[in-house]
Design a protein that fits this description.
654 residues, Immunoglobulin-like, 20 strands, 4% helix
Length: 654
């Protein structure tokens, strides 16, 4: 913190700084109401901390901030010198830099009563110290070991080009910089005071941030079990391997969390995922340890890219090694993974069965502004994550800091992100705002964006369902390729949730009017979804926003979309809430033709296969929407459904 001031002649700007100690406090309220034997209490949380800022102050030995150079007569004029000491104090760990310049770009000593022309110049042509000529002045910075005033001088630096006159690399206590100022005035100069204002500025040097780090906790006693009580852990392993499964270089300092000296390691990861092994046998044995990985080369883009828990081969990627990971303790550092590349966080935390949760700030330090490529960014990132946790779920703001506004390729961005995850958590569900920050307006390619995102997830949750508005901010108006966009998105998801259903308007924001490729867009989207739900319905107008007029490829667009929907709940006669015709509502299906809708690759192949009950509603949809487009029934459309009486169908479909 700096507070400039000034003094006349070499009027010195003094930088002042104060040490700021901020103690954040709050009030704790305890409310007690007493009604006979009933006690009521309330509590609040208080964050207490301090804020430390660097101290720096500057002063000089000039009385009152004025340095007058005494002059002595000689032959044709007057000359003299005067020393000035500048003192700086700072606690900044990297020291300070001291600069000097004239207050303005006028570097002359100017007569105080006649400033227009009576000046003593400092513009003579020497850059290195030299003897003063008549009617000139200058300065000299003392060198190390100098004990007497200088006799040669440099010109005065203007305000636009300050001169660095001192620099330290450590904290300073009354650090002194000595200068000599000299002047030479001819006899023909009018008497009086000639002044210039000098500015001395002391600035704390840049302090680089601590090396980026990433921490996670392991417990070598954890095995593949649903029992997460540490007192019941049965494992006896005393070693763990950090998985270096990505074929990129690494240079790390590792704190293994057991009190042993930090280990410096460097190398290149490999697909065989040999990993970096540490043995805890002599430092604590089987148990829980927090491991911290530090960058050993500064904030180099991609310094942690070799780390990937989701490898499939090698000692460090065995399931036994993965089962030891208990928690992710810090956000992913800003520069840990290379920007703007394919598969940035792909499979990063997959198959960590015993992980207890996903931190809500996990991606908070990741800056994707300006990035154009998000291809497979979160593909399988949490696939098989926390399957043994009974309480884990997805944080609502997990992706809230991911900026995709410049993205031109979001293909497969969330492909199988949470597939097979949270299987035994009774609290797991899908947050309403999970994708609310994802801006797709610039991307012509959204193919496979949500392919299998929640495939077979939340299977033992009793509260999991698809929230209304999950895709409400997804803008597809610029996209030409929407193929497989929602393929298998919710397939076999939330099997045991009794409240699982499909919310109205789920796809109302999805604009397909410009897309030429809609193949497999909704293939298997709800296959096996809500298997045991007692309230599952298919809402009216679910696909009303679909417009196929520009499409040239609709192969499999609605293939098996509702296959086995709520299949295990046949006794409850789960059906669409109106009729199948209304599922498409006002959808424009003009792009569907006999050529692209029929057969095994057709747009409606097996759409309603193995649904518990259609109660004739399929006939209405076919007669009203499809009979004029598709000449014959696509094979398998009604396979294993309860539709047996086809007499009411259009003749071509019977």
């Amino acid at each position: 913190m700096h507070k400039p001031g000034s003094h006349p002649l070499t009027l010195l700007t003094v930088l002042l700084s104060s040490f700021l100690l901020a103690l954040t406090t709050g009030a704790i309220f305890l409310k007690i109401n007493q009604t006979e034997a009933i006690n009521v209490s309330d509590s609040t949380e208080v964050d207490i901390g301090i804020e430390l800022n660097p101290i720096i102050d500057i002063s000089t030995n000039a009385p009152g901030g004025v340095l007058m150079i005494p002059l002595s007569s000689y032959g044709t004029g007057f000359k003299g010198t005067k020393d000035l000491e500048v003192y700086v104090n700072t606690n900044n760990i990297t020291g300070y830099t001291l600069t000097m310049n004239s207050l303005t770009n006028n570097t002359a000593l100017v007569h105080q009563l006649d400033s227009t022309y009576e000046v003593i110049s400092s513009s003579h042509p020497y850059l290195t110290p030299a003897t003063l000529t008549a009617d000139s002045w200058g300065h000299s910075v003392w060198t190390t070991g100098q004990t007497t005033s200088s006799t040669t001088f440099s010109t005065i630096p203007p305000s636009t080009a300050p001169r660095e006159i001192a620099k330290t690399t450590t904290p300073a206590s009354n650090h002194t910089t000595t200068l000599t100022f000299g002047a030479d005035a001819s006899n023909n100069k009018p008497s009086g005071i000639y002044l210039n204002t000098m500015v001395f500025t002391a600035t704390t040097n840049y302090v680089p941030p601590p090396p980026e780090k990433f921490s996670f906790t392991i417990d070598t006693r954890m095995t593949d079990t649903l029992d997460t009580d540490p007192t019941h852990f049965s494992g006896t392993a005393t070693s763990y391997s950090i998985p270096t499964c990505d074929t990129r270089a690494y240079n790390w300092i590792i704190d293994w969390g057991d009190g042993t000296p930090k280990q410096t390691v460097a190398g290149t990861g490999a697909s065989n995922c040999a990993g970096i092994l540490h043995n805890y046998a002599t430092s604590g044995g089987a148990g829980e340890y927090q491991i911290t990985i530090h960058s050993n080369g500064g904030a180099i883009d991609g310094w942690m890219h070799a780390l990937n828990f989701g490898g499939s081969m090698g000692a460090a990627s065995t399931q036994a090694n993965k089962n030891m990971v208990k928690s992710i303790d810090t956000p992913i550092p800003a520069n840990a993974y290379i920007k703007n590349i394919n598969n940035r966080f792909s499979t990063l935390f997959s198959s960590l069965y015993n992980a207890v949760s996903i931190p809500d700030n996990l991606f908070s330090k990741i800056d994707t502004s300006g990035d154009t490529n998000f291809f497979r960014m979160f593909q399988m990132t949490f696939a098989g994550f926390a399957t043994n946790s009974t309480s884990a779920t997805i944080p609502s703001n997990l992706f809230s800091t991911i900026n995709t506004s410049s993205g031109t390729n979001l293909s497969a961005m969330f492909s199988h992100t949470f597939a097979y995850s949270f299987d035994n958590s009774t609290a797991a569900t899908i947050p309403t705002n999970l994708f609310s920050s994802i801006n797709t307006s610039m991307s012509p390619n959204l193919s496979g964006m949500f392919y299998g995102t929640f495939y077979e997830a939340f299977n033992n949750s009793t509260i999991a369902t698809i929230p209304s508005g999950l895709f409400s901010t997804i803008n597809t108006s610029a996209s030409l390729d929407l193929s497989s966009m929602f393929m298998e998105t919710f397939a076999n998801c939330t099997e045991n949730s009794t409240i699982a259903t499909v919310p109205p308007g789920l796809f109302s924001s999805i604009n397909t009017s410009s897309a030429s490729n809609l193949s497999n867009m909704f293939k298997l989207t709800f296959m096996g979804y809500a298997r045991y739900s007692t309230s599952a319905t298919i809402p009216t107008g679910l696909f009303s926003s679909v417009n196929t007029s520009a499409a040239t490829n609709l192969s499999g667009m609605f293939s098996s979309t509702f296959r086995m929907f709520a299949y295990a709940n046949k006794a409850n006669d789960v059906t669409p809430d109106t009729d199948i015709n209304d599922i498409w509502g006002s959808a424009n299906l003009s792009g569907i033709t006999a050529a692209n809708a029929g057969g095994a690759s057709g747009a409606f192949y097996w759409t309603f296969s193995m649904m518990p009950s259609l109660v004739g509603q399929a006939q209405t949809f076919i007669n009203n929407k499809l009979s004029g487009i598709i000449p014959t029934s696509p094979a398998g459309t009604f396979t294993n459904s309860s539709v047996s009486d086809l007499t009411s169908l259009h003749p071509n479909w019977q």
